[in-house]
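Input/output pair, single chain:
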Amino acid sequence: MKFYKYLFSMLFAISISFMVSAEIKKHEFTKEDIQRMAKAKAVIETKFGNIELKFFPEVAPNHVRNFIDLAKKGFYDGTTFHRVIPGFMIQGGDPNSKSPDRSKHGMGGPGYTLKAEFNDKPHKRGTLSMARAAHPDSAGSQFFICVADSPFLDRQYTVFGEVVSGMDVVDKIVAQPRDKRDNPIERIEMKIKIVEKQK
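Output:
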C-alpha cells in the first residue's frame, strides 16, 4: 500500500501539473442549490456498461457543480479512462485523451482550477474523487473512482460522490491491458449524462 501511495502522488503531480497556474473558481451556494445537486445523478456510459453516480454537495458543492456543468456541456464525451491501476483506481476526465497522442493524456483540464474542498468522506471502494497536481487547489476536470479502500488519500483529495451501481463495470475497466503509463491499450471512451429530479 505504501508503494501505491507514492505512485499515486507522483502520477497526479506529473499528470496535471500544467493546471496549477490557472484561474481558481469558487462559488457560494444556497440551501436550495445543495438540495437540488443532491438529487442529481450522473451516468457514465462506456463500452463495458454504465456507471451511476450520486453526489455529495453538502461537503463539496463546487466540485459537484463543476462536474455537472462540464457533463451538461458534453465536455467529458469522447474522453477516456486514461489511467487504470488494479487494486487502486481508474482515472479519467482529461480532454487531451480525445486525441490519439497518448503522450499528452493526463495533462489536460478545463482551463481553470477549483478551490480544494477536502472533507471527512473516506476514500473507499466506489468513491468518486478529484485528481489534482501537487497544489491543493489544482483540480479541474479529471476524476477518479476507487476500486479498493484507499484511506491514505483521505482529506488530501476532494471526495464529491460515489458509485451507486456499476462497480462491475469499474472492475472490468481496471482489469484492461495497459501500457507502462497505466493507460489502457484499447481506448475506453465515456459519455456522461446528468439526470436531475424535478420537484
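Residues 13-21 have pLDDT under 50 and may be disordered. The domain at 2-195 is CATH 2.40.100.10 (Cyclophilin).
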